[in-house]
UniProtKB/TrEMBL annotation:
The active site is at E200 (proton donor). It comes from Novosphingobium guangzhouense. Pfam families: A_deaminase. Its EC number is 3.5.4.2. This is Adenine deaminase. It is an enzyme of class 3 (hydrolase).
Length: 336
C-alpha cells in the first residue's frame, strides 16, 4: 500500500450515502440464491460482474432491483448488512448512515419487519464487533407513486424510533422532488431527518425543489448543481452537505472520466462535499476505494482528504457531541 492509500484507510470517516441493497456482492447473491432456492439469470460470479456495465442510472437500476430478489428473510438482510459493516470497518468507517429501499422488498411480498429487523440486528452486532455506529435511512422509490410512499411510511410506524431519516432514490428524471412534497412534510412532522437524491441525472431545478419543497437536511449527489451559479452559492451559504459518490458517477456515466470529476471544484466553491460508495458491489469499490480513486485522478492533498472526512461527520445526523468527538479524533489522526 502506498503512503496515501494507507493514510486513507486509517482516516476516521463516516459513510453517508450507501444503499445496503447495493452492497450485495455477487458471491453473497449466489449464496442467498441457493439458500432460498431462487433462480438467478447468471451462471457464475464472473458472469454477474461482466453484466455490471452501465450507460446510465436506469441500466443499473434494472440489474440492481433484479439482484435484490435473492433477499428473502431477516437472516439474509442481517448477513447482507454484516458483510457491508466488515468492509466499512476495514476502510476506517466509524459511523455509517445506510439507506434501505423497503418497497423493493414489500412489493415482492417480503414483510417490512423481516427487512428492518435483519438490518437492526446487524447494526447492533457491528457496534459490538467493530465499534461502528450506524443509523437507518428509509428511502422511497421515486418511480412509484406518492400514495405508495405514504403507505411505506405508515408501514414503518412501529419502528420510527429506530429510523433516523427518509430519503428519495431510484429513477430521477421525470420524478421530481415536488411529487413527494407531502410525504416528506409528513415524515418531518414525525421527527425524521430528510435527504434526497438530486442532481445526479436530474437538472439543477430538482436540487432547488429538494431544498424548497422537501426541506432536505442534505443532498445525495448534487453534481448537476454546479451548472447553476446561484444554486452553488446558496448551497455553500446554507452549508448543505452533498454526499458525492465518485466511482458511482464514473460507472453511471455522470462523468466520463474521473479526471473530470468535480469533487475538488465543489470544495473550492465552499461546498460541504463528502465521499461515499453508493452501491459498492456494483460500482467497483467501497468508500476507501472512492477516496483513493478520486484522490489520484484529481491530485487531492492530505488536507483535502481530511476536509472530506470532517465534512462526513459534520454532515451526519449524529448529535453535536458525537460529531465533536469524531472530529477531534480525526484531527489527532491528521496531526500524525
Ligand atoms: N445512485 C443511485 N441513484 C438513484 N437511485 C439509486 N438506488 C441505488 N443507487 C442509486
Ligand atoms: Zn444513491
Amino acid at each position: 500500500m502506498t503512503d496515501l492509500s494507507q493514510f486513507i484507510a486509517g482516516l476516521p470517516k463516516a459513510e453517508l450515502h450507501l444503499h445496503i441493497e447495493g452492497s450485495l456482492e455477487p458471491e453473497l447473491m449466489f449464496e442467498l440464491a441457493q439458500r432460498n432456492n431462487v433462480a438467478i439469470p447468471y451462471a457464475s460470479v464472473e458472469e454477474v460482474r461482466a453484466a455490471y456495465d452501465f450507460s446510465n442510472l436506469q441500466d443499473f437500476l434494472d440489474i440492481y432491483y433484479a439482484g435484490a430478489d435473492v433477499l428473502r428473510t431477516r437472516a439474509d438482510f442481517h448477513d447482507l448488512a454484516m458483510a457491508y459493516f466488515a468492509r466499512a470497518a476495514a476502510d476506517g468507517v466509524v459511523h455509517a448512515e445506510i439507506m434501505f429501499d423497503p418497497q423493493t422488498h414489500t412489493d415482492r411480498g417480503i414483510p417490512f419487519a423481516e427487512v428492518i429487523e435483519g438490518l437492526l440486528s446487524a447494526m447492533a452486532a457491528a457496534e459490538a464487533e467493530y465499534g461502528l455506529t450506524s443509523q437507518l435511512i428509509l428511502s422511497f422509490l421515486r418511480h412509484l407513486s406518492e400514495e405508495a410512499a405514504f403507505a411505506t411510511l405508515a408501514m414503518a410506524e412501529p419502528w420510527l424510533d429506530r429510523i433516523t431519516a427518509v430519503g428519495l432514490d431510484s429513477s430521477e428524471v421525470g420524478h421530481p422532488p415536488a411529487k413527494f412534497a407531502r410525504v416528506f412534510a409528513a415524515a418531518r412532522e414525525k421527527g425524521l431527518k430528510i435527504t434526497a437524491h438530486a442532481g445526479e441525472e436530474g437538472p439543477p431545478a430538482y436540487v432547488h425543489e429538494a431544498l424548497d419543497l422537501l426541506g432536505v437536511d442534505r443532498i445525495d449527489h448534487g453534481n448537476r448543481a454546479l451548472e447553476d451559479e446561484a444554486l452553488v452559492s446558496r448551497l455553500a451559504a446554507e452549508e448543505m452537505t452533498l454526499t458525492v459518490c465518485p466511482l458511482s458517477n464514473l460507472k453511471l456515466c455522470v462523468v466520463n472520466d474521473l479526471a473530470d470529476h468535480p469533487l475538488d471544484r465543489m470544495l473550492a466553491r465552499g461546498l460541504k462535499a463528502t465521499v461515499n460508495s453508493d452501491d459498492p458491489a456494483y460500482f467497483g469499490g467501497y468508500v476507501a476505494d472512492n477516496y483513493r480513486a478520486v484522490a489520484q485522478a484529481r491530485g487531492l492533498s492530505r488536507a483535502d482528504l481530511v476536509t472530506l472526512a470532517r465534512n462526513s461527520f459534520t454532515g451526519s445526523f449524529l448529535p453535536a457531541e458525537a460529531v465533536a468527538r469524531h472530529v477531534e479524533r480525526l484531527e489527532a489522526y491528521a496531526a500524525g
